Amino acid sequence: MIPYGRQHITQADIDAVTRVLHADYLTQGPEIPLFEDAFKAYCGAKYAVAVNSATSGLHIACLALGLGPGDLLWSVPNTFAASTNCALYCGAEVDFIDIDPNSWNISIPALEQKLVQAKKAGRLPKIVIPVHFSGMPCDLAAIHALAQEYGFHVIEDAAHASGASYEGTKIGDGRFSDMAVFSFHPVKIMTTAEGGMVTTNSQALYQKLARLRTHGITRDTAQMTNAPHGPWYYQQLDLGYNYRLTDMQAALGRSQLQRIDTYVQTRRDLAQRYHAALGKISNIQLPVPDTRAQSSHHLYVVRVPASAHAYIFDRMRQSGIGVNLHYIPVYWHPYYQQLGFQKGLCPEGERYYAEAISLPLYPGLTDDQHSYVCSTLENALAERA
Ligand SMILES: *Cc1c(COP(=O)(O)O)cnc(C)c1O
Hints:
13 helices, alpha/beta
């Protein structure tokens, strides 16, 4: 089976992890700050906090902004459930903004329209989480302008977008948001097995994130409520968690980060080859390039006619191609249905779901495999035409 995505591990990665196994600290050692420093320098952010998953990162990002019961968080339906689960962990409520029919990212007109209504109803969101779907950056400048006007915070779900850029600078540089959250799950752009990173330019948010990751505890005397009792002293200031990454993972991440631009370039080349090969087929909608942004190409999604969708999906799986579907509208999940969400809430996200197929895309996908995916898709479409 050709998977839709997979990790790429080199001998240098293996050596980096092995070095940690022979060293003094398996966790909370020197590798974590080294990885954080390297990642924030890469993104152009002032601060970075490594966490054991993007899910944990989203949770503490919401907590750092004070999200709690009575508050509202908005995101999109076309994402992994973690993008909104983070608000539910905090006891807040969530709602969904429909996606744009071309970029498959958050629709700016739909966001604006919902903000106008929410203002009238006195129920504005505290946080909006735009998701850089497939690695294509959202229109961050437009979201930022609305955030200024309506007074909400922005957390970028950048799980797909390590190495992507928007208007000439890297995602994660915090130009248009409070924080950005990255994932290092093996199918993402770079990996630490499980793992994630939160970047920010705010010192106050950084200090909260760093505490919440480790039980709410600080050893920084400047943050303490009284003078230290002695050199052993630390204080718990918040109800935090153990969301730490290990040193083995941080070493892997730092080694992977050295190749991130090569990874993104390889993905871009593969995406361009898909575009060239599939562009001549009718009945298929391809991702639309955005001149203002450079995708990291986490996913290559095509849309096929809804009437042929199930057939093509099965046909490709039967041909040994591990196509996938990103994503089921989040509020269609039974858990969200039970919270009261109704189907029909985001028509574009639902239309998208009936048509989308993620094709294999990862460094290591061979030319032959790539051609095989294209010809199998073309044949399957023709069979249903
Ligand atoms: C993968 C993913 C997450 C969660 O990442 P983990 O590191 O697995 O917790 C969150 N949001 C999106 C959009 C994702 O694709």
